[in-house]
Design brief:
Helices cover 77% and strands 0% of the residues. Helix 1 runs antiparallel to helix 3 and helix 2 packs across helix 3. Belongs to the VPS37 family. Its main location: membrane.
Length: 206
């Protein structure tokens, strides 16, 4: 970085005659003036770098409180998600009781569709935030609602799918232990494959 300024100063001195050089080196004021001329571009560049660094530092200091607040709120949201996960079992029990009056396959399909819809909504909110369409407060409020719905619906869908899989496995297992149909129960209480008895001959009476 400094080499270019040294090269520039050397090139200026190389064009001077011996008398000019003796005059400069024999006069301290002229020598200082010449040195100042050589170093002036370096001083200007140094001032520019200092100004840019000061501006960048001030900008970072202004953003730091918002970043700290955002980090804290994200931690709070993570804690809320964990608490919601602990209450999922209660929700799943309620879902199981409702599934007795609803088609399980239809319920599972609706849950999966709603979960995908909530995930798309949270992605749209994130895109709006990164595109500066939402403030930090708006982003956190909307993102919290969307992600909470997504997690609950996804957990319900996964549990519902597990219940359906267990039910199918249970039915298949029970069908293997059904007694064979021997024809014993429900049969006629008498033999049906015996030859017919001869009927008596009826004679006419006079």
């Amino acid at each position: 970085m400094y080499q270019q300024f040294l090269n520039h100063g050397s090139s200026q001195l190389s064009y001077m005659s011996s008398d000019e050089l003796r005059e400069i080196f024999g006069d301290d004021d002229k020598l200082d003036e010449r040195i100042d001329q050589i170093l002036k571009p370096l001083e200007n560049e140094k001032d520019v770098i200092i100004t840019e660094n000061r501006t960048l530092a001030e900008s970072n200091l202004q953003k730091e409180p918002n970043l700290i607040e955002l980090r804290s709120r994200i931690n709070d949201l993570s804690e809320e998600f964990r608490n919601l996960s602990e209450n999922v079992q209660t929700k799943l029990i309620q879902l199981k009781s409702k599934s007795n009056t609803s088609d399980p396959e239809s319920v599972l399909a609706r849950l999966q569709a709603c979960s995908a819809e909530s995930e798309e909504k949270s992605d749209e909110i994130s895109d709006d935030f990164f595109n500066s369409k939402l403030s930090i407060d708006e982003f956190l409020d909307q993102f919290k609602v969307a992600r909470t719905q997504m997690h609950l619906r996804k957990l319900k869908a996964e549990k519902m799918q597990e219940l359906l899989r267990r039910g199918a496995h249970h039915n298949a297992t029970n069908s293997n232990f059904l007694p064979p149909n021997t024809g014993f129960y429900g049969a006629a209480p008498y033999p049906t494959n015996m030859p017919p008895y001869p009927m008596p001959v009826m004679r006419p009476s006079y």
